Amino acid sequence: MEILRHVVLLVHLVGFAILFGAWVVEAAARRFQATRLMDLGLLIAFVAGVVLCAPFGRDYDFNWAKIGIKLGILVVIGALAGISRSRAKKNTPLPTWTFWLIGALILANAALAVIWR
Ligand code: HEM
Asked: Residues 59-79, buried b or exposed e (16+ Cβ, 10 A)?
């Protein structure tokens, strides 16, 4: 069961890597827009994150406050990314600071995950 949990954690990290990697690519290309690849990374991180909340046969002591805040931040990232993509399609893009906010929120979630035990 512990191996299975580690596999799900790996999938969660792959989702994070896709999400943050896609964001860095857009920042480096100076496009400052959310992309479908970011949606995919977010979806993978979300599904694997929810599965990670299962006890996996052991009596885990979850930090539910941390998990709740991470979930809330993920919803805000998803909303910002969705609005950013639909506004870009209508040629009325969101201001650039919203793109930087998305990156900061992704990093905040990763920092919460590793720093707040
Ligand atoms: C952008 C969104 C997210 C990012 C960047 C992220 C990042 C991470 C990282 C880097 C870890 C590894 C921590 C470690 O093992 O030291 C982790 C673990 C974990 N994540 Fe996430 N996560 C996100 C969203 C979520 C969501 C939405 C949930 C639950 C609903 C969640 C639940 C968990 C759980 C249960 C663990 C393993 C146990 C723990 O360290 O708390 N994550 N996450």
From this structure: eeeeeeeebeebeeebeebbe
